[in-house]
Amino acid sequence: MLSRFVIAISLFWATTLSFAQERNVDVVDKVIAGLFEKQSGKFLCLSQNESHAAIRATVMKSLKGVDLNLRDKATEDTISKVIYTKFPCPFSPDRPELRPAKTADVTGAWLFPEASQRYRYGPKSPLWESRAGLPPIRCEGIFYGPNGRMALDQAVGDAACPTFEKLKKMEAQAKGEAWSLIRDGRMRVGRTDAPNDFEEWDIFVVKTNFDFSGTKFRKGDLVEYRRREKGNEFNVATMFRHLQKMP
Prior knowledge:
Layout: H1 3-22, H2 27-39, H3 52-61, H4 73-86, E1 98-100, H5 103-106, E2 108-112, E3 137-144, E4 150-156, H6 164-173, E5 177-183, E6 186-191, E7 194-206, E8 210-212, E9 215-217, E10 222-228, E11 239-245
Antiparallel strand pairs: 1-7, 2-3, 2-11, 3-4, 5-6, 6-7, 7-10, 8-9, 10-11
Helix pairs in contact: 1-2, 2-4
């Protein structure tokens, strides 16, 4: 199923080259072409066969007030951040079935199921290599406690997936791990004893059922994109999670 992403990316790149040859390429076209050439399938994905014109139109909506006559690094960085924000892997969160999550949506125990692990990283992401030689992650459990504590447990290989009871016990014993919403749809996770060690995630709740590449996303599920950690100031989605509420 992941070949669908690669096909969409390849078609887009071919269109981009043709499009660039037909018109004078400005700074927006330059950054779009450059980023997709380097990051297609890694940290940028197209869930449909969007044309260059459609990609550009989406980007331009977020560049109002930006002086695009300036071809400096600051302008290119601004455009890059918009592109990374709008076209993460495996799909864009700008879809009618999703809305920014609130605290009440997030609190509780969740399972990142085995069937959705293929979306953890982009299909060509170098982050897959970080587990080279290790058993694959089968599933992952997360407990977002109402008191701001959290617990995470991964099952690898043939190990059984985490249960609600195990996660609840881990959350009660957690030392330092914490979560909170900066605003609706943006979560900060870190350690209370190490304030500079943190991540930020965009987090959405599914409000209407939808299917993506054979995977069912059901009402009440969570969709998460890791958007900030050490060394990432461009809002690049370096990890994705599909979470299903545990009973």
